[in-house]
Amino acid sequence: MAGFRSLARQVRDPRCDLALRRYSLRKCLERFAPYGHRATWDHLCSRAGFGPEDRSPDPARLVAALEELEEARSVWLAYEVEFAERRKKEKHDGLRRPGSVDDWHRLTWGGFGVAWCDDPRVHPDDSLAEVLRRLISALEREPGAVCPVCDGERLVWKYELDHEPSTGPVCTDCGILVPRPVLTPDALADARRGRLLMSA
């Protein structure tokens, strides 16, 4: 089975058939898809300027979509290296019990569904790399009361998500399933009760 880098080479290779280049970009999403496969595909198509069902997109647009995906992947892989180093140090220092961030991270290893969007048509507008930077920053600071990606205050608890965990706080502004560790207990409770957070 081809890895992300070999698939990326096929996307860039002008000697490859256009259908294969498009297919290879889709296959890259099986290795790394921060919003989930369908929502990440919709995002990349929208940002690069071709339709999700376009069978013969401009090759330059395919490469632009790939470049955005690669930048985001490098951001996430760097985070995973730092995460692994931190856990190794914590274990060495005797901290064996993982925290809530660690529990969340275990479900997103490799970057699939890091900022899950259950509705593939509702996702953040910013670049994938910028979204991941904001999410990582939120994981590294004290919990807050708003969406770490868009600062949206309208968080609602959703059930039967096509993801693990299958329930959780979803930002109604940008569509992501907000990682529980980045929210305060009050914000989580408000989302569960269906109360929208209001500005002071």
List keywords for this structure.
mainly alpha; 200 residues; two-stranded antiparallel sheet
Give a written overview of the molecule.
This protein is mainly alpha-helical and 200 residues long. The protein has one domain. The chain is built from 7 helices and 2 strands. It has a two-stranded antiparallel sheet with strand order 1-2. The longest helix is centred in the middle third of the chain and has 34 residues. It is globular. The mean pLDDT is 90.
Summarize the structure.
The chain has helices at 4-12, 18-28, 37-48, 59-92, 100-107, 128-139, 185-193, and strands at 155-158, 168-171. The protein is mainly α and 200 residues long. The longest helix has 34 residues, at 59-92.
Helical content class: 40-55%
Number of domains: 1
Q: How large is the share of residues in beta strands?
A: under 5%
Output the helix-strand order: HHHHHHEEH
Q: What radius of gyration results from the CA coordinates?
A: 18 Å
Separation of the first and last Cα atoms: 52 Å
What assembly state would you assign to the polypeptide chains in this entry? single chain
**Ranges with pLDDT <50 over ≥5 residues?**
none
**Strand count, sense and closure of the main sheet?**
2 strands, antiparallel
Strand order of the largest sheet: 1-2
Principal-axis shape: globular
**What's the average pLDDT?**
90
Helical element count? 7
